[in-house]
Amino acid sequence: xxxxxxxxxxxxxxxxxxxxxxxxxxxxxxxxxxxxxxxxxxxxxxxxxxxxxxxxxxxxxxxxxxxxxxxxxxxxxxxxxxxxxxxxxxxxxxxxxxxxxxxxxxxxxxxxxxxxxxxxxxxxxxxxxxxxxxxxxxxxxxxxxxxxxxxxxxxxxxxxxxxxxxxxxxxxxxxxxxxxxxxxxxxxxxx
Length: 191
Prior knowledge:
Number of strands: 0
Mean pLDDT: 89
Low-confidence stretches: none
Radius of gyration: 20 Å
Distance between the termini: 68 Å
Oligomer: single chain
Order of helices and strands: HHHHHHHHHH
Helix content: over 70%
CATH class of the largest domain: Mainly Alpha
Number of helices: 10
CATH topology of the largest domain: Tetracycline Repressor, domain 2
């Protein structure tokens, strides 16, 4: 039976989504420089030409993936959390619980991995990150309360997000690993 225009549109949308999802995972594992369209097509299980039907180049595909790593929603949540009338320790616990829960989702792990890789490519990119800055603000507050370990707040944010990045990588690469729990993640910053 012939397919309708709507069915064709849905098939195209599904293929585009599949390419983006599978490419995100492949780029997260291999990085941009070590990714070839031919290898990517094999990984996805499609012809190389199919990728080019949806994206003109590897750069265009990666730019679309980069847009999906936008972390403005997470930064907003952290900034909103920082405004709550609760202790900094409670803020860190709440944030850690949400992060650990999010890491159960492979898409979130891919997003964290690619976002971190993009930051690493920029000179001092990590330390200019809004996510680092927002967490550093909570850490400063906690240090004043005596509840958070002493040290440079941005470097402590780096320790925290670096640990999250490590477990995002484990989620993507290691089968049957044990995920860090909220208490351990919180403990990184506790005084």
